[in-house]
Amino acid sequence: MRLVIARCSVDYSGRLDAHLPEATRLIMVKADGCVAIHADGGAYKPLNWMNAPNTLNIDDSTWTVANPKGETLTITLFEVLSDVDAELGEDPGLQKDGVEAHLQELLAARPESIEDGLRLVRREYPTAIGPVDLLCRDADDGVVAVEVKRRGEIDGVEQLSRYIERLELDSTLGDVRGVFVAQVVKPQARVLAESRGFRWVEVDYDDLRGLRPDELRLF
Amino acid sequence: MRLVIARCSVDYSGRLDAHLPEATRLIMVKADGCVAIHADGGAYKPLNWMNAPNTLNIDDSTWTVANPKGETLTITLFEVLSDVDAELGEDPGLQKDGVEAHLQELLAARPESIEDGLRLVRREYPTAIGPVDLLCRDADDGVVAVEVKRRGEIDGVEQLSRYIERLELDSTLGDVRGVFVAQVVKPQARVLAESRGFRWVEVDYDDLRGLRPDELRLF
DNA sequence: ACTTCGATGTCGTTT
DNA sequence: AAACGACGTCGAAGT
Predict the structure, then answer these.
(1) How distant is C1' of C1 from CA of A203, in Å?
(2) Of A35, B113, B117, B146, which has the fewest Cβ atoms less than 10 A away?
(3) Which of B25, B44, B191 sits opposite A88 (nearest CB)?
(4) Domains along chain A?
(5) Which residue from A127, A118, A123 is spatially nearest to A167, judged by alpha carbons?
């Protein structure tokens, strides 16, 4: 990784056109050829960037980055304040815990934690507009479509609406009931879900993972 | 901005939990207090980060970043290979050209490029749930609501649906026809648009800008 | 402050 | 490779 701090101006031409006037910035060049131009503030997103795969051409004080799609990034250097190069090596990578896929797995293994008597028919049940998270049958053998989100917001309810519309059109399933499941269901999402005739359920991630004893649920 | 290259391990706890095993990485600390941990590859997104506002506490080889929401990032340093500090100053900011707003302008100036005989009534026509991109009348004087996107995906069709529902409720416009316009309309968006009774149209940004001669369209 | 929506989104997964 | 949805999305604009 090479880190250059320099007074520079930058031009990008590609999916849009963008220009950065002369100022002091960080230019970060990674081992895979990615280039990013950072200011001294504003979260982690760079002002300009170019992702791999691309080619970096350094001609005196003009750096030109080009990729196969025909996008170009041109950096003009006026004064270099610092220039550091270091070999970092491969990164072992990030371990995450607590994302939606995990939540869906846990619910698929224990559909009864959503509603008494609920049985899983299929995970990721396919429709023309995408897969339904969980397709189930309830205690009365009715078809139930379950949408799982980590955070339950309006978009998720819209998604469930579309799936149910599709399921009722495309199949011989007949009436399909909707259930919206999330760790937290936002007030607006509750209102919309109810107005669409869906149940909404909040579940606890730690409970599902079995970190808390099941007995606690009996109370 | 402070740039430290070091062998380190990192733990994040907040919206999820994540762990980075010991390896050599870049730690970037910006003037506003943001911290980002970068590997030597993988686009511009850091492996871990913490945005402002937050507090950075450096205690020997353990750095702790905490924000008001209770999220924490803990960095344990094993070996520092490089440590650079520089004053960058304010950035004058990025100038952009070619985003959705621009596309909408061009279409407003030439509604007939969407559909023969289409005339603009108003751009950003207001409704209770937000402005409709273009409100038009067609060759038969029927009301047409146009939603403009750079890339046409399902969300955009949903947005158009909500606007039309509103327009038909709130006004004396009567039936409103929907047209979904984008540079590229994705297959799922096509299906949904058609099932809602909307037309979808793909337009070319360069054509609209007039970079290609109009005569080309005659063939 | 909160919500909505665009983005050179980026990233992973599946087709 | 293309499409599709999730994201610790980020960030700006409007309320």
Answers:
(1) 28
(2) B117
(3) B25
(4) 2-85 (2.70.180.20), 100-218 (3.40.1350.10)
(5) A127
